[in-house]
Amino acid sequence: MMQRLREHIEEITPISDEEFEYIKTFFILKKVRKNQFLLHESDEVKYEFLALDGIYKVFYIDENGKEHILQFAKKNWWMTDYIGFFKQKNATMFVECLKDGEVVCLTLEGREKLASEFHKMEHFFRVKLTNGYIALQQRITILLSSTPQQRYEAFSKLYPDLILHIPKKYVAEYLGISRETLSRLYTNSNR
Question: What is the pTM of this model?
Answer without folding.
Answer: 0.92
